[in-house]
C-alpha cells in the first residue's frame, strides 16, 4: 500500500512495503505493551524501512466509522505505530478536518481495557470455539437465529450479509441505529422509511432549521460545518440562518436569528412557515424567517428534526418543494436495496413471538441502547456477542469475542453522503481480535479467509482487470472514486395534519446526543469524557438544562440536584441553566449511565433513555456534583467576545501604551502569530482534542477538574451574549505575548521569549513556583500538581500500552512542571529542518498547528506575522481584528476577529 506524502508540517516518506514493517512490529507486541519508553525491550528492525530512518512521519489514508458512517482520515505512522489522526482533504466527509471522535480514536486503539481474547463467561476460549458456535447457529438454515448489527455502511459487509441470508434462508438480519446522522428523517415516500437530507451549501443563501442540529455531533458534522462556514464566509451579510429549537444547540448558537420554542410548538412553526409563504399571517419571528426564505427562493432550504411528526415533516417537504431548495433526498448510507434488513423494533416483536432462539450481536450494544424492553425478552435466548470490549451486552452473553479496532482492520465504508472509501490497517492487531468480515464468514461456515481478501473480492468483481491500479489509487487517496452515489428518494406525498400537540403536565424532555461520548459508544475514552460540553462546559457526566425562568420557578440554582421522573423511571442529575432554552423544557444528554464501560466510563452520569418525552422535575435539596471547566459565563462589562454589524464591521481598537517596563524585542523572520475568527468558531472542540493528541496532554479526572486543575492547552470559553440570548465561543490558547507578564516573574528563567516571537517554556528549568501562572491575565498556563501522565495518572491512563499513543516529538511532562500552548513548536522546528536541508526559507502555510488542522470551521489562521503577504497578516488587517484584553499592553500574538451580526438581526422584513 503506498503511503501518502506527509504534509509540510509533518515530513514525508517514500513508497515502501509497509506490511513487512508491520509484521516486524507485531513481533514486538509484547514489548509495545511494556511501553515505548523502555527501549531495551523494543525489538529493532531487521531491515530499516527508508521512511523510518529519519524518524519522519508517513501518512496513510483510511476511514474511521462514526455511528457506522465513514469520515476520511490520514493517519500518521511512525515506524509502524499510529500516533496522530488528520483529516483527509480528498474525502468529502472531512475535507481535511477532523472531529473529536476521530482525534480520540488513537486512545481507543491503545486502550488496555479492550477485550484481548474470546471468552465464555470467565473462561477463555479459542477462536475455533467461537467459529464452531457461529457455524452451528446457521447449520439448520438459520431458523430461529437472528443477527443484530449496528448500521452497516460497508459494501463488503453488506455483500457478505446478502450471501449469508441466501445461504441461511431462516436467518433474519436486524440493525439498530442509536445515533442517526443529522438530517436523517422519516419519510412517507413509497418503499422507504428514512431519507437523508443533504444540503448543497454552495447554493444556499438562507437556511431555516426546525429543531435540527446539522452542526452538532455525528458523522456529518465536519462536512456540514465546512459547508456552513464557507457559505457564511463567501456570502457574509447575505447568507443567514434562522433556528427554531427548544434546547440550545451548536446550530442555534451560530444562527443569525434564533427562537426558542417548545417541542410541541415546532409543528406549528412548520405549518406557519408554509402559510406565511402563501401570504398568511404568522408570528413575527416566523414571518421574518418566511420573508427571508421567499427572497432567497431557489437558494433557500428548511432543515427539520427527525422528531417532528409526519404532518410537520410533510409541511417541511412542501416548503422545500416550493422553494426549489438545493437539498438532495438520499437513501441513507446504511440502506442496501438488495439486502433485507429490519430494525430493532422488529427484533423486539420477534423475541416476543418466540421466533428468536439464538441471537448473534455484531458490533452493537443492545442491552444498554434498548434497555429493559430488550433485556426483559432475553430469557431462553442464547446470546453471542462480538465487540470491542466487555460491555453491557457482552456481560449478558454466553460467549464474547473481540473485534478489531478500525485502525487494525481491512474494510470499506460509505460516508453519510454515500462516498465510499477503503479502510486499511495502520498496525497489526494488538490482541486476539478478528474483523467483522471474518465473523460473517464464520457464520457462513467459511472461516479462514482474511479480511483483506474479502474486501478486495468486492472491488475485483466491480473493476475486473482494472482492479490492481484502481485499488492502489483508492488506498493512496482514501476515496473510491467511481462508487455510485446513493439513490435519491422522491418527494413524499402529502400527509394529513397531525393533531395539535398538547403541552401536557410537567416538562417536555429533549434528549440530545453527547458532544463527547455520542450515544455512549465512546464512554470508555478518557479524552472525550474530559472534553467539555460546548455550552455548559460540563465534563465527566450529563446534566439537566433549564431556562432561567424555570430554574427560578423550581427554586434551583446552577449545580443543584434534581430528580427527573417519567415512564416509571427516576433519574438524578445536576442542574445547568441555559439562556435561550424554551420555557417548560428540560434538556438532557444521551450516552451516560453506562455500567460496563471500563474504569473510565462506568458509573459516569445517568442514563436518560427510559424517561420518555415528558417528565416531572423535583428538586433534590442537595448539590448535584456538577463538574465544569468554566463556571462563569458573563463578561461583566468587559468587551471580551466582541461583535460588529455586517454594515459596519470596523472595531475601535485600544491604543497600545507607548511606554513599557519591558525592553523591545527584535525578531528574526519568521515571527509566528495566530488569528482566531470567533464568527466562524462553532464550539465543536475538535481543536482541543487535536491539541491533546499532538502534545501528549494528560487526563486528570473529575476530582482534579473540580479543583480547577484541568490540563488542556487550548480551551473554548463560552460567554453569554445577552442581546441574542445565546452563548458565543472564544478559543483561548497561550497568547504568546510580546510583553509577556509571565516572563519577568520566573525566578529560574523557565518562561522565556525566543527569536521567533514564541513565549517558550523550558521544562527542565521549571521548579514549579507558579509565579507565571499567577501573573498571566489570560489564565492559559497549566501546572502538574501530580504526575498526571504516568504514576499518578487517572484510572488506567498510566498503563504502559498507552505510551504508544504519545507523540515522540513532544516531551512528556512530570510533576511540578508548568506547561502551556507552544504553537506546536515541534512542527515549527520540523519545518525549519526541512527548509534548511533544502536551502530555502519556510514557505507560507508550511507550518500548520494541530488546532488549525483539525478545525472544521476553518476559524484558525497561523503563520508569519513579519510577512505582510501571509494569511495571518491579512487576517490581522481585517477591520474585525482585535486583541483580547489589549488595554493591558501585553501585545498578544494570538488575536481575534469579532463576531458578525448580520442585517437580519435588526431587520423586520
TrEMBL record:
Segments passing through the bilayer: none
A Pfam cross-reference name: Fer4_11
In what ranges is there compositional bias, type Pro residues?
483-497
Q: Where is this region: Disordered?
A: 482-504
Query: Where in the numbering of this chain does the 4Fe-4S ferredoxin-type domain appear?
Result: 672-702
Q: What is this protein called?
A: 4Fe-4S ferredoxin-type domain-containing protein
From the broadest rank down, the organism's phylogenetic lineage runs: Bacteria, Pseudomonadati, Pseudomonadota, Alphaproteobacteria, Rhodobacterales
Amino acid at each position: 500500500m503506498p503511503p501518502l506524502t506527509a504534509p509540510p508540517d509533518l515530513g514525508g516518506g517514500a513508497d515502501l512495503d509497509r506490511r513487512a514493517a508491520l509484521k516486524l512490529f507485531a513481533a514486538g507486541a509484547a514489548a509495545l505493551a511494556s511501553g515505548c519508553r523502555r527501549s531495551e525491550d523494543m525489538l529493532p528492525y531487521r531491515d530499516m524501512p527508508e521512511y523510518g530512518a529519519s524518524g519522519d512521519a508517513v501518512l496513510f489514508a483510511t476511514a474511521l466509522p462514526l455511528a457506522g458512517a465513514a469520515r476520511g482520515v490520514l493517519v500518521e505512522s511512525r515506524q509502524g505505530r499510529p500516533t496522530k489522526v488528520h483529516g483527509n482533504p480528498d474525502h468529502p466527509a472531512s475535507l481535511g478536518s477532523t472531529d473529536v471522535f476521530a482525534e480520540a480514536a488513537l486512545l481507543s486503539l491503545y486502550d488496555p481495557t479492550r477485550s484481548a481474547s474470546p471468552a465464555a463467561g470467565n473462561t477463555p476460549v479459542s477462536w475455533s470455539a467461537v467459529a464452531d458456535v457461529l457455524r452451528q447457529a446457521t447449520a439448520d438454515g438459520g431458523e430461529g437465529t437472528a443477527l443484530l448489527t449496528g448500521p452497516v455502511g460497508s459494501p463488503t459487509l453488506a455483500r457478505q450479509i446478502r450471501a449469508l441470508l441466501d445461504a441461511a434462508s431462516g436467518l433474519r438480519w436486524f440493525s439498530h441505529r442509536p445515533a442517526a446522522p443529522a438530517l436523517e428523517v422519516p419519510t412517507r415516500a413509497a418503499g422507504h422509511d428514512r431519507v437523508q437530507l443533504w444540503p448543497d451549501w454552495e447554493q444556499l443563501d438562507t437556511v431555516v432549521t426546525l429543531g435540527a442540529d446539522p452542526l452538532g455531533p455525528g458523522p456529518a458534522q465536519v462536512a456540514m460545518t465546512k459547508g456552513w462556514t464557507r457559505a457564511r464566509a463567501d456570502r457574509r451579510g447575505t447568507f443567514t440562518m434562522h433556528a427554531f429549537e427548544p434546547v440550545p444547540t451548536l446550530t442555534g448558537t451560530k444562527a443569525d436569528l434564533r427562537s426558542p420554542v417548545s417541542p410541541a410548538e415546532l409543528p406549528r412553526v412548520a405549518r406557519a412557515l408554509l402559510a406565511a409563504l402563501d401570504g398568511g399571517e404568522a408570528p413575527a419571528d416566523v414571518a421574518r424567517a418566511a420573508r427571508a426564505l421567499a427572497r432567497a427562493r431557489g437558494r433557500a432550504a428548511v432543515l427539520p428534526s427527525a422528531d417532528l411528526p409526519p404532518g410537520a415533516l410533510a409541511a417541511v417537504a412542501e416548503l422545500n418543494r416550493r422553494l426549489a431548495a438545493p437539498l438532495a433526498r438520499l437513501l441513507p448510507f446504511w440502506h442496501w436495496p438488495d439486502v433485507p434488513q429490519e430494525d430493532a423494533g422488529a427484533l423486539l416483536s420477534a423475541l416476543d413471538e418466540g421466533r428468536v432462539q439464538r441471537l448473534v450481536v455484531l458490533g452493537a450494544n443492545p442491552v444498554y441502547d434498548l434497555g429493559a424492553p430488550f433485556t426483559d425478552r432475553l430469557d431462553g435466548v442464547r446470546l453471542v456477542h462480538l465487540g470491542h470490549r466487555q460491555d453491557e451486552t457482552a456481560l449478558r452473553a454466553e460467549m464474547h469475542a473481540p473485534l478489531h479496532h478500525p485502525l487494525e482492520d481491512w474494510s470499506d465504508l460509505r460516508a453519510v453522503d454515500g462516498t465510499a472509501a477503503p479502510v486499511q490497517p495502520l498496525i497489526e492487531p494488538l490482541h486476539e481480535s478478528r474483523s467483522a468480515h471474518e465473523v460473517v464468514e464464520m457464520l457462513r461456515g467459511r472461516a479462514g479467509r482474511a479480511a483483506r481478501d474479502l474486501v478486495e473480492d468486492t472491488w475485483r468483481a466491480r473493476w475486473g482487470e482494472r482492479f490492481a491500479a484502481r485499488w492502489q489509487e483508492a488506498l493512496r487517496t482514501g476515496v473510491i472514486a467511481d462508487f455510485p452515489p446513493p439513490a435519491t428518494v422522491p418527494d413524499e406525498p402529502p400527509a394529513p395534519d397531525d393533531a395539535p400537540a398538547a403541552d401536557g403536565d410537567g416538562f417536555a424532555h429533549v434528549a440530545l446526543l453527547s458532544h463527547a461520548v455520542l450515544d455512549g459508544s465512546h464512554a470508555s475514552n478518557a479524552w472525550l469524557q474530559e472534553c467539555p460540553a460546548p455550552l455548559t462546559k460540563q465534563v465527566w457526566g450529563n446534566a439537566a438544562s433549564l431556562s432561567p425562568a424555570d430554574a427560578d420557578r423550581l427554586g434551583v440554582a446552577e449545580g443543584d440536584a434534581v430528580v427527573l421522573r417519567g415512564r416509571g423511571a427516576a433519574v438524578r442529575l445536576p442542574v445547568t441553566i441555559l439562556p435561550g432554552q424554551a420555557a417548560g423544557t428540560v434538556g438532557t444528554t444521551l450516552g451516560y449511565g453506562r455500567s460496563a464501560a471500563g474504569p473510565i466510563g462506568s458509573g459516569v452520569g445517568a442514563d436518560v433513555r427510559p424517561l420518555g418525552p415528558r417528565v416531572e422535575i423535583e428538586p433534590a435539596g442537595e448539590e448535584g456534583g456538577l463538574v465544569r471547566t468554566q463556571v462563569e459565563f458573563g463578561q461583566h462589562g468587559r468587551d471580551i467576545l466582541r461583535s460588529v454589524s455586517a454594515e459596519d464591521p470596523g472595531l475601535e481598537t485600544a491604543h497600545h501604551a507607548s511606554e513599557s517596563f519591558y525592553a523591545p524585542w527584535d525578531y528574526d523572520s519568521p515571527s509566528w502569530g495566530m488569528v482566531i475568527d470567533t464568527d466562524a468558531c462553532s464550539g465543536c472542540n475538535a481543536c482541543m482534542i487535536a491539541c491533546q493528541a499532538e502534545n501528549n496532554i494528560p487526563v486528570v479526572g473529575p476530582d482534579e477538574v473540580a479543583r480547577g486543575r484541568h490540563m488542556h492547552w487550548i480551551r473554548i470559553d463560552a460567554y453569554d451574549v445577552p442581546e441574542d440570548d445565546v452563548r458565543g465561543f472564544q478559543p483561548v490558547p497561550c497568547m504568546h505575548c510580546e510583553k509577556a507578564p509571565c516572563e519577568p516573574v520566573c525566578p529560574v528563567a523557565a518562561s522565556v521569549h525566543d527569536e521567533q516571537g514564541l513565549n517558550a517554556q523550558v521544562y527542565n528549568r521549571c521548579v514549579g513556583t507558579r509565579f507565571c501562572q499567577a501573573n498571566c491575565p489570560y489564565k492559559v498556563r497549566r501546572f502538574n500538581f501530580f504526575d498526571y501522565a504516568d504514576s499518578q495518572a487517572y484510572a488506567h491512563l498510566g498503563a504502559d500500552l498507552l505510551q504508544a499513543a504519545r507523540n515522540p516529538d513532544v516531551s512528556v511532562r512530570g510533576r511540578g512542571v508548568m506547561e502551556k500552548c507552544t504553537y506546536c513548536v515541534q512542527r515549527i522546528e520540523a519545518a525549519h529542518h526541512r527548509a534548511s536541508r533544502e536551502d530555502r526559507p519556510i514557505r507560507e502555510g508550511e507550518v500548520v498547528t494541530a488546532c488549525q488542522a483539525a478545525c472544521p470551521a476553518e476559524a484558525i489562521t497561523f503563520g508569519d506575522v513579519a510577512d505582510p503577504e501571509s494569511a495571518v497578516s491579512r487576517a490581522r488587517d481585517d477591520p474585525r481584528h482585535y486583541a483580547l484584553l489589549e488595554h493591558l499592553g501585553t501585545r498578544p500574538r494570538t488575536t481575534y476577529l469579532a463576531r458578525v451580526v448580520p442585517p437580519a438581526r435588526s431587520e423586520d422584513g
